Every structure is written in structure tokens, then in C-alpha cells.
Amino acid sequence: MPVQIRRPDRRECERCGRVERWNEAADAWRVDGGGGDVFCIHEWDINGAFLPFEGTED
């Protein structure tokens, strides 16, 4: 099985709580619910715990 690279489909700012979801149709992140702080330099919760690889090469 070839290795597949995936991206997160949801992210949340650790500073202001803004939540965004990946929109396939727009090929961009879109605000989900409240907008958070528009002046925040967002610190997204994507870190070393997220594994972008699925499967393994044989």
C-alpha cells in the first residue's frame, strides 16, 4: 500500500478559540461558527500529535 499524505480537516486557534474547517469546494479554510478575534495572530493546534501519513510502503 503506498503512503498517503493527509491534511487536517479542522483546526482551532489556541489563543482565541477560532475554529476553521477545510472546504473542498473552495480549496481553503473557512470559519466554522464564531469568528474568534480578528486581530489574533492565530496559533493553530496542529502539532506533532497530528500524523500526516497513512499506510506504509511495502
TrEMBL record:
Residues of the HEWD domain: 1-55
Domain of life, source organism: Archaea
Name this polypeptide is given: HEWD domain-containing protein
Native species: Halorarum salinum
